[in-house]
Amino acid sequence: MTHSIMPGRHHHAHEGPGPVARGTHLPAGHAPRSTWAVPVVGGVVLGLFAIFLASNNGYSVAAAVLIGVVAGLIAMAAGYALLHERNTMITEVRAAAFGALFGGSMGFLHSLSGGTVLRSTGIGLLTGIGMGLASYYVFYWHEHRADM
Description:
This protein is an all-alpha fold. Helix content is about 65%, strand content about 0%. Helix 1 runs antiparallel to helix 2 (about 60-85) and helix 2 packs antiparallel against helix 3. The longest helix is centred in the C-terminal third of the chain and has 28 residues, at about 115-145. The protein is flat, with a radius of gyration of 19 Å. The two termini are about 10 Å apart.
């Protein structure tokens, strides 16, 4: 049996980067609902949890709200950019980007809960690696399920 990317074998998953075949485009100005809904929900949840952690760990209410709002907006913007551009990235880069966003968020939340910089960095790194590996597995499986 030859490998799926050998000459003579053609699979749509190998036409271009990402799970969408080259030439498949959404109509201009019409992004899928998940492109904006998932980052908004994720940013709101992250922001509310950041407010909760900051207010329970010595920050004033105004400072906790400011931290939560800024963290939520940054997470929303990064998540939207990542989901909007996901079809232009190869599997490995896309998985690393999802891992970096998740790991950075978890490390930040752990630092708000009173963890040391080293421990927060370690938690962010470990959760980011875990999310990156899980994302890579899911993306790879979806792109190559026709070969199985």
